[in-house]
Amino acid sequence: QERLVESGGGSVETGGSLSLSCSGSGYAASEYCMAWYRQAPGKKREMVATIDTDGRTTYADSVKGRFTISSDDAKNTLYLQMNSLKPEDTAMYYCAARYGDCQGLTESDFDYWGQGTQVTVSS
Fold first, then answer.
1. What pLDDT is recorded for position 25?
2. pLDDT tens digits, 96-111
């Protein structure tokens, strides 16, 4: 049974940094497309970043240059380093996984989701 557990959320001021982790069990991370999504109150869930089975990464335009996605396959752990945080980054952050590569995937294609971790950025 695959399980994803996020941690590392919290409250910071504008310009601050946070590092999120997503610990996985029951699967081999190197064989999965992994992603971070976020959902702000009253808004649709949106993709933040993905990391493919070959290590290639993609980012939403709103976080490029500020966020970095990475993974440690040996530990089955996904990370999201968030720098220069803005109030508009405030959201519940979720990690997601899908067997295979990330090509052409949409939110509905991800099979496994964590429970989410809250990030709040104050102005």
1. 84
2. 999 999 998 999 999 9
β-strands 112-113, 46-51: how paired? unpaired
> Cβ-count burial of 37 within 10 angstroms (0-12 exposed, 13-18 middle, 19+ buried)?
buried
Q: Which phi and psi angles does 68 have, rounded to 5°?
A: -135, 125
Nearest to 71 by CA among 57, 92, 90, 87: 57
pLDDT digits (tens, 9 = 90+) for 17-62: 999 999 988 877 789 999 999 999 999 999 999 999 999 999 999 9
Joined together, the tokens standing for residue 21 give 């982790």
Ranges assigned E (strand) in 9-66: 10-13, 18-25, 32-39, 46-51, 57-59
In the numeric block, which tokens belong to residue 116? Answer: 């989410």
95 contact partners, CB below 8 Å, separation of at least 6: 4, 6, 20, 22, 34, 35, 36, 37, 78, 113, 114
| CA–CA separation, 86 and 92 (whole Å) | 14
